Amino acid sequence: MGKIRVGIVGSGYIAHYHARGLQECNSAELYAIANPTVEKGKDFAGKYGLKHVFSSADDLINSKIVDAVIISTPNVFHSEYVLKAFKAGLDAFVEKPMACSVAEAEAMKEQALKEGKVLMVGHMWRFDREVRYLASLVSSEKIGR
What we know:
- This protein is of the alpha/beta class.
- It has one domain (4-139): NAD(P)-binding Rossmann-like Domain (Rossmann fold), CATH 3.40.50.720.
- Helices cover 43% and strands 20% of the residues.
- The protein has helices at residues 13-23, 38-48, 57-61, 78-87, 102-115, 129-139, and strands at residues 4-9, 28-34, 52-54, 68-71, 91-95, 119-122.
- The chain has a 6-stranded parallel beta sheet with strand order 3-2-1-4-5-6, sandwiched between helices.
- The longest helix is centred in the last third of the chain and has 14 residues, at 102-115.
- The chain is globular.
- The termini are far apart.
- The mean pLDDT is 95.
């Protein structure tokens, strides 16, 4: 099996963290970017060596060139794009909050189960300075057992 081809929807601040992380990943590769401001998408693509730039999330999701998408857009678009990704046969990683309502979150969960797709929500604290400090206290047995 080859590398998982990943597209990112949205080229804002957090998208750069995802791009750098994917560059270090042996099992996946950043393959495409979608951003409504085409110049920002092209700048992002140039920075990370991408050949595929889309001006809309729909175009990327329906392109059939990626296996999964990272949704790093304003929160109001999370549910819409994740559901579209599942219908297109893609797995999805979505930034927090996963949705703007419990109903949207439930719909996302149900669609992932129905389609047999992966839905991962980016509730990530592992690399925050404070969390690393607390982990070092636990590892050194200064706190915890």
